[in-house]
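Thread title: Can someone regenerate the structure for this chain?

I was given the following input by a collaborator and told the matching C-alpha coordinates would be attached. They weren't. Posting the sequence so someone can regenerate them.
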Amino acid sequence: MSEIEKIDSISSKEKVEQSSQNNDFLEIQTKTDKKQTKLIDSYLFAIFSVFGVIFMSLVLVFQIWLTPIKVVGSSMQPTINVSITSEADEEHCDVVYYTKQDSYSSDDIVIVENTNNKYVPTSDTQTIEYIIKRIVATPGQTIRFCRDDKSDDSMLYYYIRVLDENGNDTGFEDTTIKEEMCFSRTDIETIINNYKRATNENSLNYSQATANFYKRYYSMFYNIFEKAFDNLDNGILYEYTVPENEYFVMGDNRNISQDSRFFGSVDVDDIAGYVVLHIPYGQNIWQAIWKKITYAI
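Best answer:
Regenerated them for you:
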Protein backbone atom coordinates (compact mmCIF):
# COMPACT_ATOMS: atom_id res chain seq x y z
CA MET A 1 0.00 0.00 0.00
CA SER A 2 1.37 3.32 -1.02
CA GLU A 3 1.87 6.18 1.41
CA ILE A 4 -0.95 8.10 -0.19
CA GLU A 5 -3.37 5.16 0.27
CA LYS A 6 -2.29 4.82 3.93
CA ILE A 7 -2.96 8.50 4.53
CA ASP A 8 -6.38 8.25 2.86
CA SER A 9 -7.23 5.19 4.96
CA ILE A 10 -6.24 6.93 8.19
CA SER A 11 -8.19 10.01 7.16
CA SER A 12 -11.28 7.92 6.47
CA LYS A 13 -11.04 6.23 9.88
CA GLU A 14 -10.68 9.60 11.59
CA LYS A 15 -13.75 10.88 9.75
CA VAL A 16 -15.73 7.83 10.83
CA GLU A 17 -14.60 8.27 14.45
CA GLN A 18 -15.36 12.01 14.32
CA SER A 19 -18.79 11.33 12.88
CA SER A 20 -19.45 8.77 15.60
CA GLN A 21 -18.37 11.25 18.27
CA ASN A 22 -20.61 13.92 16.75
CA ASN A 23 -23.53 11.51 16.76
CA ASP A 24 -22.86 10.62 20.39
CA PHE A 25 -22.73 14.35 21.27
CA LEU A 26 -25.96 15.03 19.43
CA GLU A 27 -27.65 12.14 21.21
CA ILE A 28 -26.47 13.42 24.59
CA GLN A 29 -27.56 16.97 23.68
CA THR A 30 -30.97 15.70 22.56
CA LYS A 31 -31.44 13.81 25.83
CA THR A 32 -30.39 16.91 27.79
CA ASP A 33 -32.83 19.10 25.83
CA LYS A 34 -35.63 16.61 26.47
CA LYS A 35 -34.84 16.60 30.20
CA GLN A 36 -34.83 20.42 30.27
CA THR A 37 -38.11 20.51 28.34
CA LYS A 38 -39.70 18.06 30.77
CA LEU A 39 -38.38 20.09 33.70
CA ILE A 40 -39.81 23.31 32.25
CA ASP A 41 -43.12 21.56 31.56
CA SER A 42 -43.17 20.34 35.17
CA TYR A 43 -42.52 23.87 36.48
CA LEU A 44 -45.23 25.34 34.26
CA PHE A 45 -47.68 22.63 35.30
CA ALA A 46 -46.95 23.31 38.97
CA ILE A 47 -47.37 27.07 38.53
CA PHE A 48 -50.64 26.74 36.63
CA SER A 49 -51.88 24.18 39.17
CA VAL A 50 -51.19 26.58 42.04
CA PHE A 51 -52.96 29.44 40.27
CA GLY A 52 -55.81 27.11 39.39
CA VAL A 53 -56.25 26.07 43.02
CA ILE A 54 -56.11 29.73 44.13
CA PHE A 55 -58.68 30.72 41.50
CA MET A 56 -61.09 27.93 42.42
CA SER A 57 -60.64 28.72 46.12
CA LEU A 58 -61.49 32.37 45.50
CA VAL A 59 -64.54 31.35 43.47
CA LEU A 60 -65.73 29.12 46.31
CA VAL A 61 -65.06 31.84 48.88
CA PHE A 62 -67.03 34.46 46.97
CA GLN A 63 -69.85 32.08 46.13
CA ILE A 64 -70.26 30.42 49.54
CA TRP A 65 -68.59 32.43 52.31
CA LEU A 66 -69.13 36.02 51.11
CA THR A 67 -72.31 37.79 50.02
CA PRO A 68 -72.21 40.79 47.64
CA ILE A 69 -74.44 43.84 48.00
CA LYS A 70 -74.60 47.15 46.15
CA VAL A 71 -74.45 50.21 48.40
CA VAL A 72 -76.86 53.06 47.59
CA GLY A 73 -76.67 56.49 49.23
CA SER A 74 -73.99 58.70 50.75
CA SER A 75 -74.19 57.90 54.47
CA MET A 76 -70.80 56.12 54.37
CA GLN A 77 -68.86 58.75 52.43
CA PRO A 78 -65.93 59.32 52.17
CA THR A 79 -65.26 55.59 52.71
CA ILE A 80 -67.89 54.21 50.33
CA ASN A 81 -69.72 55.61 47.28
CA VAL A 82 -67.54 58.62 46.53
CA SER A 83 -68.53 58.42 42.84
CA ILE A 84 -72.29 58.81 43.19
CA THR A 85 -73.88 62.02 41.91
CA SER A 86 -76.95 62.03 44.19
CA GLU A 87 -78.72 60.03 46.88
CA ALA A 88 -80.85 58.40 44.18
CA ASP A 89 -77.87 57.47 41.98
CA GLU A 90 -77.83 53.67 41.64
CA GLU A 91 -75.44 53.52 38.67
CA HIS A 92 -72.14 54.74 40.16
CA CYS A 93 -72.40 52.72 43.37
CA ASP A 94 -69.76 50.66 45.14
CA VAL A 95 -70.17 46.97 45.91
CA VAL A 96 -69.17 45.29 49.18
CA TYR A 97 -68.82 41.63 50.14
CA TYR A 98 -69.80 40.69 53.67
CA THR A 99 -69.94 37.63 55.90
CA LYS A 100 -71.71 36.88 59.17
CA GLN A 101 -70.05 36.02 62.46
CA ASP A 102 -71.09 35.68 66.11
CA SER A 103 -69.62 38.99 67.33
CA TYR A 104 -68.06 42.13 65.90
CA SER A 105 -65.43 44.71 66.79
CA SER A 106 -65.27 48.47 66.97
CA ASP A 107 -64.57 50.03 63.55
CA ASP A 108 -66.10 47.09 61.64
CA ILE A 109 -68.34 48.19 58.77
CA VAL A 110 -71.51 46.12 59.06
CA ILE A 111 -74.65 45.39 57.07
CA VAL A 112 -77.77 45.71 59.24
CA GLU A 113 -81.08 44.11 58.31
CA ASN A 114 -83.88 46.68 58.35
CA THR A 115 -86.75 44.19 58.47
CA ASN A 116 -90.19 45.86 58.66
CA ASN A 117 -88.55 49.32 58.80
CA LYS A 118 -87.19 48.47 62.24
CA TYR A 119 -84.39 51.04 62.09
CA VAL A 120 -84.95 53.34 59.11
CA PRO A 121 -88.48 53.98 57.77
CA THR A 122 -89.57 54.64 54.20
CA SER A 123 -93.27 54.02 53.70
CA ASP A 124 -95.97 51.46 54.46
CA THR A 125 -95.59 49.82 51.05
CA GLN A 126 -91.81 50.15 50.54
CA THR A 127 -88.88 49.29 52.75
CA ILE A 128 -85.09 49.62 52.87
CA GLU A 129 -83.95 46.04 53.34
CA TYR A 130 -80.43 46.78 54.57
CA ILE A 131 -78.41 49.68 55.94
CA ILE A 132 -74.61 49.95 56.12
CA LYS A 133 -72.86 51.60 59.07
CA ARG A 134 -69.65 51.48 61.13
CA ILE A 135 -69.53 50.06 64.65
CA VAL A 136 -68.49 52.80 67.08
CA ALA A 137 -69.18 51.09 70.42
CA THR A 138 -69.57 47.45 71.40
CA PRO A 139 -71.67 45.81 74.16
CA GLY A 140 -70.91 47.26 77.60
CA GLN A 141 -69.09 50.31 76.28
CA THR A 142 -70.38 53.84 76.84
CA ILE A 143 -70.49 56.45 74.10
CA ARG A 144 -70.13 60.02 75.33
CA PHE A 145 -71.29 63.01 73.27
CA CYS A 146 -69.17 66.08 74.01
CA ARG A 147 -69.80 69.70 73.03
CA ASP A 148 -67.15 71.40 70.91
CA ASP A 149 -66.08 74.87 72.08
CA LYS A 150 -67.05 76.45 68.76
CA SER A 151 -70.76 75.82 69.46
CA ASP A 152 -73.07 78.84 69.78
CA ASP A 153 -76.79 79.64 70.06
CA SER A 154 -77.50 78.67 66.45
CA MET A 155 -75.12 75.78 65.77
CA LEU A 156 -74.06 72.85 67.93
CA TYR A 157 -70.73 71.18 67.13
CA TYR A 158 -69.91 67.98 68.97
CA TYR A 159 -67.61 64.96 69.03
CA ILE A 160 -67.72 61.53 70.65
CA ARG A 161 -65.63 59.56 73.10
CA VAL A 162 -65.97 55.84 73.83
CA LEU A 163 -65.44 54.48 77.35
CA ASP A 164 -64.85 50.86 78.32
CA GLU A 165 -66.78 48.94 80.99
CA ASN A 166 -64.63 50.55 83.70
CA GLY A 167 -65.19 54.09 82.46
CA ASN A 168 -61.75 54.46 80.88
CA ASP A 169 -61.33 56.19 77.54
CA THR A 170 -60.68 53.61 74.80
CA GLY A 171 -58.81 56.10 72.64
CA PHE A 172 -61.40 55.89 69.87
CA GLU A 173 -60.82 58.51 67.17
CA ASP A 174 -63.14 59.58 64.37
CA THR A 175 -60.54 59.33 61.60
CA THR A 176 -62.95 58.11 58.91
CA ILE A 177 -65.69 60.75 59.05
CA LYS A 178 -66.40 63.15 56.20
CA GLU A 179 -66.66 66.29 58.33
CA GLU A 180 -67.07 67.37 61.93
CA MET A 181 -70.45 66.66 63.45
CA CYS A 182 -72.92 69.49 63.95
CA PHE A 183 -76.63 70.33 64.24
CA SER A 184 -78.35 73.66 63.81
CA ARG A 185 -81.15 74.88 66.05
CA THR A 186 -83.37 74.68 62.96
CA ASP A 187 -82.54 70.98 62.62
CA ILE A 188 -83.59 70.41 66.20
CA GLU A 189 -86.87 72.28 65.77
CA THR A 190 -87.66 70.29 62.63
CA ILE A 191 -87.19 66.99 64.45
CA ILE A 192 -89.36 68.14 67.34
CA ASN A 193 -92.14 69.26 65.00
CA ASN A 194 -91.92 65.93 63.16
CA TYR A 195 -92.30 64.10 66.44
CA LYS A 196 -95.32 66.18 67.44
CA ARG A 197 -97.01 65.49 64.12
CA ALA A 198 -96.17 61.81 64.36
CA THR A 199 -97.80 61.55 67.80
CA ASN A 200 -100.93 63.41 66.71
CA GLU A 201 -103.52 60.73 65.94
CA ASN A 202 -105.40 63.14 63.67
CA SER A 203 -102.31 63.91 61.59
CA LEU A 204 -102.21 62.53 58.02
CA ASN A 205 -98.73 63.87 57.26
CA TYR A 206 -96.88 60.57 57.79
CA SER A 207 -97.25 56.91 56.97
CA GLN A 208 -97.61 54.66 59.98
CA ALA A 209 -94.05 53.40 59.56
CA THR A 210 -92.61 56.92 59.55
CA ALA A 211 -94.77 57.96 62.50
CA ASN A 212 -93.57 54.96 64.50
CA PHE A 213 -89.99 55.82 63.61
CA TYR A 214 -90.23 59.34 65.01
CA LYS A 215 -91.94 58.09 68.15
CA ARG A 216 -89.22 55.51 68.69
CA TYR A 217 -86.11 57.62 68.37
CA TYR A 218 -87.28 60.98 69.66
CA SER A 219 -86.34 60.28 73.27
CA MET A 220 -82.69 59.67 72.41
CA PHE A 221 -82.56 62.64 70.04
CA TYR A 222 -84.09 64.87 72.70
CA ASN A 223 -81.56 63.78 75.34
CA ILE A 224 -78.57 64.36 73.07
CA PHE A 225 -79.40 67.47 71.12
CA GLU A 226 -82.40 69.50 72.20
CA LYS A 227 -81.25 69.86 75.80
CA ALA A 228 -77.77 70.80 74.63
CA PHE A 229 -78.93 74.20 73.38
CA ASP A 230 -80.31 74.95 76.83
CA ASN A 231 -76.92 74.40 78.44
CA LEU A 232 -74.07 75.18 76.04
CA ASP A 233 -71.64 75.44 78.96
CA ASN A 234 -72.03 71.76 79.69
CA GLY A 235 -69.12 69.89 78.10
CA ILE A 236 -70.78 66.45 78.25
CA LEU A 237 -74.09 66.41 76.37
CA TYR A 238 -75.16 62.83 76.86
CA GLU A 239 -73.87 59.34 77.67
CA TYR A 240 -75.30 56.08 76.37
CA THR A 241 -74.21 52.62 77.52
CA VAL A 242 -74.61 49.93 74.87
CA PRO A 243 -76.74 46.99 76.12
CA GLU A 244 -75.56 43.39 75.97
CA ASN A 245 -75.68 41.81 72.49
CA GLU A 246 -76.11 45.21 70.82
CA TYR A 247 -73.87 47.61 68.90
CA PHE A 248 -73.84 51.38 68.48
CA VAL A 249 -73.41 52.15 64.76
CA MET A 250 -72.89 55.40 62.84
CA GLY A 251 -72.37 56.41 59.23
CA ASP A 252 -69.06 58.03 58.25
CA ASN A 253 -71.00 60.90 56.68
CA ARG A 254 -72.26 61.83 60.13
CA ASN A 255 -74.27 64.92 59.29
CA ILE A 256 -76.65 63.12 56.92
CA SER A 257 -76.60 59.59 58.34
CA GLN A 258 -79.58 58.08 60.16
CA ASP A 259 -77.97 55.79 62.69
CA SER A 260 -77.81 54.81 66.36
CA ARG A 261 -77.96 58.45 67.41
CA PHE A 262 -81.61 58.30 66.36
CA PHE A 263 -82.82 54.69 66.51
CA GLY A 264 -80.54 53.41 69.28
CA SER A 265 -78.12 50.49 69.22
CA VAL A 266 -78.77 47.54 66.90
CA ASP A 267 -79.29 43.94 67.95
CA VAL A 268 -76.51 41.52 66.99
CA ASP A 269 -79.15 39.23 65.42
CA ASP A 270 -80.03 42.03 63.00
CA ILE A 271 -76.44 42.32 61.73
CA ALA A 272 -76.19 40.38 58.47
CA GLY A 273 -72.39 40.53 58.53
CA TYR A 274 -69.31 42.71 58.37
CA VAL A 275 -67.64 44.00 55.21
CA VAL A 276 -64.65 41.90 54.14
CA LEU A 277 -64.06 43.40 50.69
CA HIS A 278 -64.97 46.81 49.26
CA ILE A 279 -65.04 47.28 45.48
CA PRO A 280 -65.21 50.99 44.50
CA TYR A 281 -67.16 51.96 41.40
CA GLY A 282 -64.98 51.49 38.29
CA GLN A 283 -62.86 48.69 39.77
CA ASN A 284 -63.28 44.96 39.37
CA ILE A 285 -63.06 42.35 42.09
CA TRP A 286 -59.48 41.32 41.25
CA GLN A 287 -58.21 44.91 41.50
CA ALA A 288 -59.88 45.19 44.89
CA ILE A 289 -58.34 41.92 46.09
CA TRP A 290 -54.88 42.96 44.88
CA LYS A 291 -55.20 46.33 46.60
CA LYS A 292 -56.22 44.64 49.85
CA ILE A 293 -53.29 42.21 49.63
CA THR A 294 -50.69 44.89 48.86
CA TYR A 295 -52.12 47.17 51.56
CA ALA A 296 -51.81 44.38 54.12
CA ILE A 297 -48.20 43.78 53.06
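The first strand starts at residue 67 and ends at 70.
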